[in-house]
Input
Amino acid sequence: MTVVKRMAIGGAVTAVLVATFLLYARPDFIVQLANQVWACF
Output
């Protein structure tokens, strides 16, 4: 695996983790998401 490919994968993983953290830092988003999932059943 080349260095560029490893850096790209690491950057993508970091971006996903940061996005997840930012979404979980907003409680209203989590409540809305839970309500949408619950509405499916």
